[in-house]
Amino acid sequence: MDSGKTLSVVIPCYNEAKTIRDLVGRVQAAHAHGLQKDIVIVDDGSTDSTREVLASIETDPELGRGVRVVLQPNNSGKGAALRRGFSEARGDFVVIQDADLEYDPNEYDALLTPLLDGRADVVFGSRFLGGPHRVHLFWHYLANLGLTTLSNAATNLNLTDMETCYKVFRREVLTRIELQEDRFGIEPELTAKVARLGCRVYEVPISYSGRDYAEGKKIGVRDGFRALWCITKYGLLKR
C-alpha cells in the first residue's frame, strides 16, 4: 500500500551510542505499508558518544533519509523527549520507537493496519498477546501487569500492556492532548488522556526482546511509583 501518507517515527534517545545506528537502519528498512517515513530522533542530553553517532547518521545519504535530529539541552526524561518529538512530527500517523532494540520496527505493518483500515484512532502493541519475547525479569512483568490493571480500572479500557513503548496515533489525536509528564509517567498519562477523548483503541501482538539493567535498561522502582500517581492523577481523579 502506498497511500501518499507519512508515518512519523519519534525516537527518544539517551546514551544509546551502541544501538542507535542499528535501530535507524531497521526503521529505514521496515515496510510500514509503504508509507513514507519522517524520522524524528530526540537526543535527551546524552553524555556518551550518541550525539556523534547521530551526526554521522544525518550525513549518511542512505541512513539519513528523512531523519531529523533534535538535541535537548539537558537530560529531562522520556516524556519530555516525546513532547518535543510530537511537536516536530509531520506525519499522518505517529509511532513511538525506543532506541534500544527491544522493539522491532518490522511490527509497523501490524500496528498500522487498524489505523489504515479506519477501525482505530490509536493502536497499542502488546507484548503479552502471544508474540515471541525474551523470557526474563519476572518482577518487572508483575509490576507491569499490576499497573495495567489499575490503569484499566481508571480508564475503563481493557488493555493487556499499558506500559508498552509501541503506541501509534493518528496525528490529530496527539494535537488534542496536552502532555505534562517528563519521565516514564508519560505512558499512563497518554493512556488516560486517549481514553478520555473516547478514541477507538486497538491492541495487536508484538515481539519483544527486553534488556536487563546490566544491558542498559533505564526504568526503575521510582518510575513505578510515579506511574501509580499518574494513574490516579490523570485517570481516577478525572472521572
Q: Would you write up a description of this structure?
A:
This protein is α/β, with parallel strands linked by helices and 239 residues long. The longest helix has 18 residues, at 138-155. α7 (186-197) runs parallel beside α8 (221-235). The relative contact order is 0.17. It has a domain at 6-133 and 161-182 and 196-212: Spore Coat Polysaccharide Biosynthesis Protein SpsA, Chain A (Alpha-Beta Complex), CATH 3.90.550. The protein starts with 5 loop residues before the first strand and ends with a helix. The chain contains 8 helices and 7 strands; from the N terminus they run βαβαβαβαβαβααβα.
* CATH class (first level) name of the domain at 6-133 and 161-182 and 196-212: Alpha Beta
**Fraction of helical residues:** 25-40%
CATH superfamily of the domain at 6-133 and 161-182 and 196-212: Spore Coat Polysaccharide Biosynthesis Protein SpsA, Chain A
What gyration radius follows from the Cα positions, in whole Å?
17 Å
What is the residue-mean pLDDT, rounded to a whole number?
Answer: 91
Unreliable stretches covering 5 or more consecutive residues: none
CATH topology of the domain at 6-133 and 161-182 and 196-212: Spore Coat Polysaccharide Biosynthesis Protein SpsA, Chain A
